[in-house]
Write a structure and sequence with these properties.
about 300 residues, mainly alpha, two-stranded antiparallel sheet, 14 helices, globular
Length: about 300
């Protein structure tokens, strides 16, 4: 009798245990699935759009299935509250900064000699750009470029714009009308740059999820946007890859960029200003570059 009762209780306990494990497993799967779907819903239409524009569905699904790829309002919100006028460009004209620039020119003198002959661009202006952009490659940015550009690309959707708007502190918000106008404009720009990023990553055999950059999606030592990486970046060290995190490639790429827009050894100060303005649409920025170049040429 005791054996029967023991068997009965054991059987009941076993059945309850199996039921509990099954319930927890199903609940966990649904919970995780629901979480993932929620996180990836922002990019649902974006993925379809990319496929329609010629990217393979398999690759797009693989890229966006990466847990490191997600809708990132933190990075993009910086773009909408960023005030360049507050940047202290004078820091790049300090004695310490200029000394580092001189050292950089000396260290890479072979590369600079070659690009001056090939592209007609002075080493001091290239160095000035690299100094201001990334402190000569010592500060490259920590944002996920694909997250930044993908998030920016979907701002054409009202629901995603609302998420971005709500993430910005009231004290830092711009006018709503201005926000809407800027969001729509940046959405188109972000999508174009996202496509360029994916093409560049595929060409150079790089996982796009691993590319880090600025809050605006700029990449590498010269802080090129992906479209410029694709069109104007150069393989300076002839290793078969264009890597803007490599100093030689960065130097050649900046020289090629400036030449592409009309830089020549004998151009006027006004023409120099106009070309440098294409690199960054800021008079503060351009004036600083020219002052650095002047200081390095003394």
């Amino acid at each position: 009798m005791k054996k029967k009762l023991f068997y009965k209780h054991t059987k009941s306990f076993f059945i309850l245990t199996i039921f509990f494990i099954s319930f927890v497993s199903i609940f966990s799967i649904n919970l995780v699935s629901g979480y993932e779907n929620k996180e990836k819903l922002e990019f649902k239409n974006l993925k379809k759009r990319l496929v329609l524009d010629g990217f393979t569905e398999k690759n797009i699904e693989k890229i966006f299935a990466n847990p490191k790829v997600f809708f990132d309002v933190t990075g993009v919100s910086d773009f909408f509250i960023y005030s360049e006028a507050k940047l202290d460009y004078n820091q790049f004209l300090s004695k310490k900064s200029l000394e580092k620039a001189f050292e950089y020119i000396k260290k890479h003198k072979v590369d600079f000699k070659k690009v001056e002959v090939k592209y007609g661009v002075d080493k001091t202006i290239i160095t000035a750009i690299l100094l201001v952009e990334t402190r000569l490659g010592t500060y490259l940015g920590k944002r996920s470029v694909i997250n930044t550009l993908s998030t920016m690309a979907v701002l054409s959707e009202k629901k995603q714009r609302e998420k971005l708007w709500d993430s910005i502190k009231d004290s830092k918000k711009i006018e709503r009308k201005e926000f809407e106008k800027k969001a729509n404009k940046k959405s188109n720009w972000g999508y174009t740059e996202l496509k360029a990023l994916l093409k560049y990553a595929a060409r150079e055999h790089i996982n796009p999820a691993k590319i880090k950059g600025s809050y605006a999606g700029a990449i590498g030592i010269p802080q090129f946007m992906p479209s410029n990486c694709l069109a104007l970046a150069k393989d300076g060290n002839k290793d078969g890859n264009i890597t803007l995190f490599n100093h030689t490639d960065a130097i050649y790429s900046v020289a090629n960029y400036l030449k592409h827009f009309g830089w020549e050894p004998s151009i006027t100060r006004q023409k120099q200003h106009k070309i440098l303005y294409k690199y960054n649409h800021s008079n503060y920025y351009v004036d600083t570059l020219l002052k650095i170049s002047d200081s390095l040429n003394k």
